[in-house]
Amino acid sequence: MRLHAWYRTLAGRSTNTKPISGQIVLEVIPMRKNQLRQQVDHYCHHDHTGSYRARKHRHFVLHKMIRDLFHIGHVPPKWHAITHEHIQRLVTHWQKERLKPSTIMKYMTIIRDFFQKIEHAIPDISNQSMGIKNQKSSSTGIHLPEDISDRLVNPTAKILIELQIHFGLTLSEAMRLCPTIHVQEHQLWITRDIATNSHDRTIPFRNEAQIETKNSLLSLCREQNLILTYGYHSVRGAYSNELKAVGVPSSKSYRGVYAKNMYPELSKTLSPYLAKQTILREMGLQSRRTLWSYLNE
């Protein structure tokens, strides 16, 4: 049975917590706890997404959630009975235990994904709503002027920035993009030989800015990539000098702008989960934590 179907069946089951005559009332809570554990084990057994290490961590976090809900005396009768209050008390408990905000954020990413997959919507459980703030995140945000393309004069620097912000490419991928190989009729095809994660992926043309960027690349490179056309040091130097001239650091990646701009567009026709999955696939990202940082910077 598929995960979603299994949990829909589970959601419809009622949990009888009324003690039978002569039964000790306190036995109900351990019974709930064991039932929740069994359901998590079933879920983790059938959810094969992520690496082996990621799957083990997912199992650990979900079981920790059960243990800590039991510890604070706030155990739900079933997963689909979890409310905003349960999550808020859980986060407060972790904060009192002095867990790092970054650790709690990672736990919450797994927890939100879990409830998304079992189709149980819990409102207002974002990190911001829960009062979780990573002190280090404020210094690592993407600070890129909206008119950056207009401010850049050098065409090489301009195309490298545009490939990052309009297609989500890394700088390395942008420098190695070959028009005759990677530019197709309706999409960019990032082959594994230039992809940062060594996996093929495609990014469809969805808007006019992408079409203009594609045409600029064709005009600038013709049949070869930027490195073969102008030389690596020339390309890298032009990029660094031009960004420095407009007060933008060249050492940072700006591909996160693509995720931040594309998410609300995709969300018009896709669920939040599918919109994020689409961006993860198109950017070649393995970590949901990385995507979260792009969307919230």
Automatic annotation (TrEMBL):
It holds the Pfam family Phage_int_SAM_2. The keyword DNA-binding applies. GO terms for molecular function: DNA binding. It comes from Legionella drancourtii LLAP12. Residues 34-119 form the Core-binding (CB) domain. Coiled coil: none annotated. It comes from the Bacteria. SUPFAM superfamilies: DNA breaking-rejoining enzymes. This is Core-binding (CB) domain-containing protein. Keywords: DNA integration, DNA-binding. GO terms for biological process: DNA integration.
